[in-house]
Every structure is written in C-alpha cells, then in structure tokens.
Amino acid sequence: MSETVKEPEAAASGVETLDVKPVNAKENRALYEARKKIHPKRAEGFFRKFKWFIMAITLAVYYITPWLRWDRGSGSPDQAVLLDLENRRFYFFFIEIWPHEFYYIAGLLVMAGIGLFLITSTLGRAWCGYTCPQTVWVDLFLVVERFFEGDRNARIKLDKAPMNASKFGKRLSKHIVWILIAISTGGAWVFYFADAPTLFFELLFGHAAAGYYITVAALAGATYIFGGFMREQVCTYMCPWPRIQIAMLDENSLTVTYNAWRGENRARHAKQMRKKGEPVGDCVDCNACVAVCPMGIDIRDGQQLECITCALCIDACDNVMEKLGLEKGLIAYSTLDEYTANMQLAGASGSITDIVSSAVYPQIKPDRIRDKAGKLKDTITHTTWRTLFRPRTYVYMAIYSAIGLALAVVMANRNTLEMNIIHDRNPLFVTLSDGSIRNGFEVKILNMHGEPRTFRVETTGLTNAKMKISGSQKSPTESVIVKVETNKMRALKLFVTLPSDDITSKKIGFSFKVTEQGKDISASTSANFEAPEKYSK
Amino acid sequence: MAEQEIDEVTGVQTTGHEWDGIKELDNPMPRWWLWSFYASIIFSIGYMLYYPAIPLLEGSTMGYSGKTNRSELKLEMAAASSAKAEKIALLNNTELGDIQKNEDLSRFAVAGGSSLFKVYCTQCHGSGAQGAPGYPNLNDDDWLWGGDLETIYTTIKHGVRNGEDDEARESQMPSFGGDETLKREEITAVVEYVMKLSKQDHDAKLAAVGEPIFAEQCTACHGDNATGGREFGAPNLVDAISLYGHTRVTMVSQISKPKHGVMPAWIEKLGEANIKQLAIYVHSLGGGEKAKSE
Fold it and tell me: What is the pLDDT of residues A448-480, one digit of tens each?
C-alpha cells in the first residue's frame, strides 16, 4: 500500500511518487465512517525548522513561567505569574490585580480578540498552524511516535503487523512517554494557581489538595487523548475557531496555496506527454504534499476547512521542486488575489468560483507563464508585504494599540487605595436620646500596596458630623485613624452621628474621604445620610 | 420479518417506517453516543450499589456508603460545631470585657451573636434590632436596664418579668387609671407636664397642674428630672426616644393601664457562650456603654 512506485522519469531526478490517499479529502469522507488513521511523514525544510523553533518557545513559556520568581516584598507571594484564587489576586510580574479590577483582564481579552483578527486577516490561520496548543502537542506526540515506531512507512507496517514482543515494546514505550508528557502538561497547569515549588513537593508526596490531583488528571487525560488519538479531529469537529477564522479571511489574507496555474496539468509521465505535445505543468503528482499532511487532506484540492496552514506541504513540495530543478513555491503562502491574477494569466480566465475549481485545469497553458528558456515570466503576480497592509489591517492595528495604550495609562495611574461604602439598610437611621441621628456604614478600605499603611477617614459635606468605629470605647470624633495591612482589605462598621439642628433634609449627600497619613494619597466615595421623615423640607 | 428494503440513494437499509412517503433510514447510532450510553448503565449499577437507591416499604436500601442527605447533614453540623468548639470553649472561660479586647474572639462573637440574634431575638426586636412600640430599639443609646456589656449580658441571661427566672428584671408601674389613684383629668395634666419635660408642644396651664402630681406619684421611679431609673427599668421621659410613643394617646394609655414588656430568660436555652456572643453583638450595635468600673 505504501510502497513507493518508482516512475522511470521521477527516479532519474530522485523524486519518489508516494501511494497515499488524502483520507479527509471531500470525496473520501463519509458521514458514518470511522476515522481513518493518518500517518504523517516527516517533513524537512524552512517551515519545519520554524515550527520546531515555535514549539520550543511555546513549550518553554508554558512549562517554565510558573517557576519564575519576582520579589514583591514580604507578605506577598514571590511567584512572577500567579492566579491566587484563594486570596483572589492575580500577579503578573510587576502587575497585581484585585478582583474588582477585572476590567484589565477584559481589556487584555479584547486585545487578544482584535490581535487574532489582525493576524488572521493578514497571515491567515497562523494561530492554528504554529501556536495552537493542539498543534504544538500533536507535533510533540508525533515526534515521540516517530522516535519509537519510525516514519510513515514503518508506522503503517507496524500497524498492520501482528502483535509480538517487538511491536508491544514499541507501543508500550510510546504510550509511556505520551503519558509522561501528558502528566507534566497537566502538572504545569496547576503551578499557575499556587506556589510552584511548594506545590511540586506536595504533589509528589501526596499532600496536595484533591482538586490539584483531579485537575492534573483531567488535563493529562485530555492531553493524552487529544494529542495521541483524536488529533486532527479536534480541529475539524470540536474546535469552533476554524469556522470563525474562515469568516475573517479575505482575498488578501495569506493561505497555503497550491499554485495550480504552474502545477497543472499535473503529470506523472511529463516527458512522454511533452513528446506528444500536450501541455504539462510542474506538478509531478508525487503526493509528497499529501504524505506530510497531519490533517489528511490534499492541498491541491484548494483551500479547505481542515487545513491548519502548518505549511509542511510547502516544505515537502519545495524539496521535490529542488530535485526537479524547478523554482520553489509550487505550493506556497499566497493570497486569493494573487492566485486569481496568475490563473487568469495562465489562461483560465473566468469568475473566482471557476478559477478555484479543478474544472478549469485543462484551460491552463504552461507556455503563458514560462518564457522560451523555461523561466517563470516577470508578469506573474507576487504577494508582497504591501498587499497585506490594507485599510482593514490598519483599523485592527489602531483598535489594538488604542486599547493597549488605554490599559497602559490606566495601569500607570492605578490607585493603590480604594474605598467602598455600604449604607446600613436595617435600620436606615437611629434616633439617639439627645435627638441626634446616627447612620451606620460598612466601610471597606483596600490597601493595594506592598506595605502596611495608616489612613485617616473623615466626612466631607456634613456639618458637625462625628464618627465612631463600632466596638470602640472612644467618644465619637471628627475623623478616625485606621491601619490596613499589606495587600489587604479592611472592613469596619462606622457610625456617623449628626446633631438634630444640622440635619437639613431627610437625605443629605456627602462623601467619605480616606487619606494616607502624612501623604497626599487619598480616595473618596459618595454616600447619603438618611434621617427621619420629619426632616424633609 | 418483513422484507428488508434498501434505500437507493444512500444504500442504507430502511426501518420500514413511512410517513407521507418519507422513509426512515436504519443508520447506526453514533458510537460516541452508544459508548456514553453503556458507560452510564455501568455507572448506574455502581451508583445503585453505593448510594441509597431502591425504595422499600419502609425507607430504602442503604447502599454500601450508608450515606443519606440526613446523615450527611448530621455530619456537617457536627463538623461545624467541632470547628467552632475551640472558640466556644474560649468564650466560656473568658470574661466579657476580655473577649472584647481580643480582636479575633470579638469578631467571632459579633458574627455568632448576629446569627443567634436573627434566630432568637428578631421576633420582638426586629431583624435590624430596631425594635417596635413596646420592644426596645437596641441600636440607640437609651437603655431601660443599662447598656454596658455586663448589664446587657445579665438582661439577656435572666430576661425581664418572665416569672420563671428568680433573677429576672422585675418592676411594675402602677395602674394609675385602673385602680383610680389618679383621676382622668390628673392623668391628662401629667401627660402635658411630661410633654413639657421632653420639650414638645404642650398646654402650659395643664402642665403646671401636672407638675406636683408628677413629683408626688412618678419621681420615685422616673427620677426628679424624669430621666428614668435603671434599677427599676423606668424609662427616661425627657429624651427623644420613647418606648411606646411620644403621643398624648400612648402616654395616657401607658399611665392609665401600663403595659409591661416581658422577655424570656435565655440562659437555659442558649447557654453561657451564646449569651456572651449575643451581649457583645448587641453592645456593638452602636449604643453600647462603657463598663461601670472604667
């Protein structure tokens, strides 16, 4: 099945023609059919190298980040990135976010969304092809599979072979390494939620809370199943993102494209065809592009939902073109505009729907794109960075930077002091024996700072108001002094009393003001002083 | 069995069911669905063996775990009270004043007192302790029997005029109208005098008539200046707060045939630690007074 069919002509230039079917191509897909396993062949070339590089970076970021330290002084955790759910704090290097400041996260999420629009409208499905965890971990799992079971042909052979000691050994080793990767993946995740070194030993010796083990097990299971078994099905059937991304692509977005205008008409026996005077394109139909595809499609069928634009078929095809002595880029990153222009140049003039359909291939005349010497003509359209920058791109960039700038400004001016006031509802007010009226307030002072601080709380907008902290034995005074610990919120019950003569209405608006002792840092919150009906004007 | 029919377009056998010419194809169930179905059957067997499941004439099979909602509640309640046990013991062994000085214990007492108050006290004193006519407001600084921690504690512990507890607060205002100690006009005059004392609109003539009656009949309990007497639980009559209301009608009625508030003694029902928590909570509401010794 996988034997190489050596064509006389292809063999001369060292190109193997592979017998491989794109299992997920449209015509091979039946609704009730079980999944057919894909055995992607190892690719070599620029994009493969680039993908190794991206994989190294993304995995390193994921595994190493929780172990980075960041000194925030005593009383605060020293983990650089920490989602402290228990104390409801989010630490990101120099940034510390309290739950009520969630708008920072919302802002970052909006930026991430716009960023994806920007990337997708210009570079196409770059997220899917390079940085999506599913892509990265499937790649990693394939490396392990290839290490133990060999490349495509060896794996197909092994799948068919009866179970014996050697096969069992290979399979066992593969699954053990997969499971180890899966566990460390799930394991790394929980380190973002607690002090990593402490949790590591707790997990190791079985002292950690059950929630951690359950999380690690669930994520390890998901990694093992998604990376080892489900693979391309996750992208095609489970993930909503490909479908959303497709809506964001336009005729100027980069996609991995089979340049039919120079590839067609494809021929395995090009020389014989040429002798007969039939038009022959560059594609020798060697199926190298199909063999390397992790999604099981044939890129020559045109742009497809399944294609994650991992660009491995570009590598595979470029290697073949090199051996044939032809220009690289039969399969290349290209835009629909470029493709259309070149198709029309090659003689397949017509509407876009016509151009992207293989029905027009017979109309393609190779001599219209190549000069007498066999070189590609200068009239061929090429995608440059200029075509990628268009009004849409600028709008996305403007929104992206505007939100980023706004967040940075807000972050830079972030107040490390905040106050929240809740008026007592029951009772709304209390009449005291001398006729004065007392209101109760729940005052919360947030010290979002790396040191304990002392604050003075006072009222503005009330005449002769006196206040007292509940439980305090002191007489009411004009202001109270409150100490708040590092990075803590302090809640106090505060009683504010107003003499009967100073009450001008049954509801008096005023403000609470909190000021750091000896400093110019303050915050204020408005509140109402409630009095009985008889004070209404 | 009927003859099998194969659908031409799909090549799939039909079920033989037909509606208006539309035939149902006998496609297999999706495998993920079947697996989930089988898995849930296996799960249900385990569930049935582990948890109470099959209803019997009385109760049900108890399952391997023996757990029911009721037994779990019992465990949770036990766990909650054992979690509090240490603090409760500390409350039992600490003087009231010292509890208030211990910030942590004081916060525990206020929180505990607040929930106790909601269960046992709100029926009369209201959910915000704001009181009602005849039921004192506990937020203000006007106290019938005294507002320092120790006194509040004693009042809650033994109650008021309940006839059960020997140490309950006792006092009785004479029924001036009922036993005809005072005539109707005299009562009206005393009311006008009290209105004058509490600086409200009053008939000066009648008040002058009421003054000597008040001095004779009322000062023994309410004091010479009508500022009340805490040893008798006699209310202050000159301040802005009134137990039954500041109107002439309520005052005439209260002098003629006085009502007397009753409060249960809580020590038997709640125990020492809870009474202490309640006292600290009530004291924290804003009207709490300093201890007498300080």
Answer: 887 889 999 999 999 999 999 987 778 889 999
Among B27, B31, B284, select the one facing A470 at the smallest CB separation: B284
The helix or strand, by DSSP H or E, that contains position A43, with its residue range, turns out to be: none
Question: Is B142–A433 a contact, with Cβ atoms under 8 angstroms apart?
Answer: yes
Quick check: A495 contacting B, CB < 8 Å? Answer: yes
Q: Give the chain A residue nearest B148 (alpha carbons).
A: A473
Q: What's the pLDDT tens digit per position in B14-54?
A: 888 889 988 888 888 888 899 999 999 999 999 999 999 89
Instruction: Report the alpha-carbon distance of residue A39 to residue A28 in Å, rounded.
Output: 16
Residue type (1 letter), B155: T
- Identify the DSSP state of A370: B
Per the prediction, chain A carries an average pLDDT of 89
To which H or E segment does residue A395 belong? helix A391-412
Interchain contact, B128 vs A471, CB within 8 Å: no
Distance from CA of A35 to the nearest CA of B (A): 11
Over the Cα atoms of chain A, what is R_g? 34
A-chain residues near B290 (CB < 8 A): 473
pTM for the model? 0.73
* Separation in Å, CA of B211 to nearest CA in chain A: 23
CA of residue A531 relative to chain centroid, distance = 55
Cα atoms in the 13 Å half-sphere on the side-chain side of A439: 28
Residues of chain B neighbouring A475 (CB-CB closer than 8 A): none
**ipTM of this complex:** 0.80
Residues B291 and B152: beta-carbon distance below 8 Å: no
| Per-residue pLDDT tens digits for B146-203 | 999 999 999 999 999 999 999 999 999 999 988 888 999 999 999 999 999 988 889 9
